[in-house]
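Support case: user asked for a sample of complex input and structure output to validate their parser. Sending the pair below.
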Amino acid sequence: MFYFIIDILGTIAFAISGVLVAMDKKLDVFGVLIVAFVTAVGGGTLRDILIGSKPVGWLHAPMHLLIIVATVILVIIFMNRMKYVLKTLFLFDAIGIGLYTMVGIEKGLAADLSPIMCIVLGTITACFGGVIRDILCNEIPVIFNKEIYATVCITGGLVYFLLIQFPIDNTIAYSMAIVTIIIVRILAVRFKISLPNIYRQEM
Amino acid sequence: MFYFIIDILGTIAFAISGVLVAMDKKLDVFGVLIVAFVTAVGGGTLRDILIGSKPVGWLHAPMHLLIIVATVILVIIFMNRMKYVLKTLFLFDAIGIGLYTMVGIEKGLAADLSPIMCIVLGTITACFGGVIRDILCNEIPVIFNKEIYATVCITGGLVYFLLIQFPIDNTIAYSMAIVTIIIVRILAVRFKISLPNIYRQEM
Amino acid sequence: MFYFIIDILGTIAFAISGVLVAMDKKLDVFGVLIVAFVTAVGGGTLRDILIGSKPVGWLHAPMHLLIIVATVILVIIFMNRMKYVLKTLFLFDAIGIGLYTMVGIEKGLAADLSPIMCIVLGTITACFGGVIRDILCNEIPVIFNKEIYATVCITGGLVYFLLIQFPIDNTIAYSMAIVTIIIVRILAVRFKISLPNIYRQEM
């Protein structure tokens, strides 16, 4: 039940981030809806395609589609009051990447993958919805050069695989990894931490 | 046989739209061919990947590839006379999206998906070739903010699932849905109907 | 063993080409890593998804990931001396596309595909890592209008299927196809051969 609520909140947060980027590009109603949908389900879809689970999850779970459609409609109606929502949105988003990272890691474990590949899958689940969103909107993905996002997911994954080396209940390790992701993400944004940009000096 | 001819005409129409966009970007012969191919088969490919049908359809049907290569060669040779073809092209294109929408819906039904997901798959089949075409050419997909395209597919899908509630022969419902898509598409272009663009006022 | 070494050299060459493009876009460390990874494994991943082999190869072979991470770190450290490496890099790259084309053709044969589709798969394996790299970096793929790349792979594939019509050992045909690709690629770059660009005159 707890899992279910967080999944919905995460979906809403991801969909809203899609709507906001799509609006900046002045897409039409349908374009906004597609971008919101892809942002919310794109990471999990790519993960399922890579693992080869068939068919992709959301095809059998129309709930996500309905939530995303409702979110898009509400954002469009209330868009001028969105600034009051943005702070809360950021929290949902942090919770969402925490949860989705661990969902991806779980799916990787279920598919008998090594810890390192599980962390890759968790990161893809949490981050690649946003990557596809930015590609559809003709931008370089924001997580590639502005925001600490993937690094946070990797950190959470490492914490999880570290904790389960100890005699700790799996649920506790799982929850602590999610909490780690949420806290690191909030700290990174709060203190404007970012990774160094890489470019070549003149040769 | 009828189905077969429409499929070929649709493939040609989609391939030509790919060639035209690729030419605007001054791609080389091979780039033009790739973009034409992806425009023609991209939507169906994405649908097959999402459903998990393996392998993707065109790998066993070289006919599409040959038709697309022939189309690209003919367009390059006759490109200065293309304007006489463009009106006919638009009609093929409208027939193509009608047909492909219903092909996608059929595949969704065969995979036991709910009506809403079948409509999603039909829309992906008809529209995402064009989306991938525009991404490869570094443009925001035209169906996201300029053309009524996906909405037409969704309308056709709704008509189909409405009709089969009644004691009507499936073939008739199928055909009527295709005809609906063609007519709505022609009307939308004829009267320059478009969806409202969404953007935020200053906050 | 020989195959193994070439695979590693090819991976390194592809990863470095990813790093160089990502640096031009001033991505952060993580963005550079992702782009390098996608460039190196993207073509094979797309091939596996299209054939429907499950799961995608690299999920069970962490070696590639480790090599790519090491390559990225080394390039970042030594980036100001990269110009001494670039010539060697080009040779590795040529060897890489030769090898990957034939790996893709082999996978196509193993999946019972026709020669023409095997060549398509081989070309995808060798070229689409670079295509995805350029899309992620918000550029029109360089192989679409500047470089002879895919044409080289197709040539190699044709040579292979031509040779196996004769009573020649498969390994020899395989090796000669790779050598053909390497030589044609080097000649194309050496003599700045490119395909004609296609665009419409005023209509």
